[in-house]
Specification:
The chain is mainly α. It has helices spanning about 5-10, 20-30, 40-50, 60-75, 80-90, 95-105, 110, 115-125, 130-140, 150-155, 160-170, 180-185, 195-205. The protein has 13 helices and no strands.
Length: about 210
């Protein structure tokens, strides 16, 4: 009998499946619960295309948080979850990226095997939307993490132009630290329209 609610669906699993394909299909099905009926497929298809996602279902935030809560409650082996995070990210669905952000925000550095900010940056090896990056970073802060220190930001920015741009986005979450990174703000390669609006706002705050 097909589950009629997310809780019923999740309760049909005793733990996170052991096989990669089964895990991914389980999560993909879980995303479909709670999606408002007014969201048309044509709309979600356009959102997926515009955001460069492999799919965009429109799963509400409470359902996404419920999936994360179930994973962290029912899978006692946090290392299993940590090792699977890159696979979820790589699939590239909008809900996949949201799920990864929530997992990283709610797992300890010990669970993950290293600093969550470092794990997040290592996942971002290709284009990521400004909105997704900021959404994940803000989730980290809501989960009790602090922004990385100035030395960490400088070291990360030195790795690539992409990471330099991402560090500017991090600074936008605490613009009191912009003066210490004036060179980064002024000399980092140009990005998209939203990124440049954010950068311009931060530069205006420099003394």
């Amino acid at each position: 009998m097909k589950a009629t609610s997310l809780d019923d669906y999740l309760d049909s699993f005793s733990s996170f499946p052991s096989r990669r394909g089964k895990r991914l299909s389980m999560l993909r099905e879980a995303y479909t619960f709670g999606v408002p009926g007014i969201i048309a497929k044509s709309m979600t298809d356009r959102l997926a295309q515009s955001g460069h996602y492999t799919f965009h279902i429109g799963t509400p935030d409470p359902e996404m948080r419920r999936i994360v809560s179930w994973l962290l409650t029912n899978e006692k082996d946090r290392l299993k979850i940590a090792k699977f995070i890159p696979k979820i990210w790589k699939r590239g669905g909008r809900e996949d990226l949201k799920l990864v952000g929530l997992l990283l925000a709610n797992m300890s550095d010990d669970d993950l095997g290293e600093n969550a900010w470092t794990v997040f940056l290592q996942l971002v090896q290709q284009r990521i939307s400004v909105e997704v990056f900021l959404e994940t970073a803000e989730e980290f802060l809501r989960g009790g993490r602090e922004l990385p220190d100035d030395a960490w930001i400088r070291d990360a920015a030195a790795q690539s132009e992409t990471w330099a741009q991402l560090m500017i986005l991090l600074l936008s979450l605490d613009d009191t630290r912009c003066e210490a990174h004036a060179t980064l703000l002024k000399e980092t390669a140009q990005g998209g329209e939203l990124f440049e609006r954010i950068r311009s706002r931060l530069i205006e705050r420099l003394p």
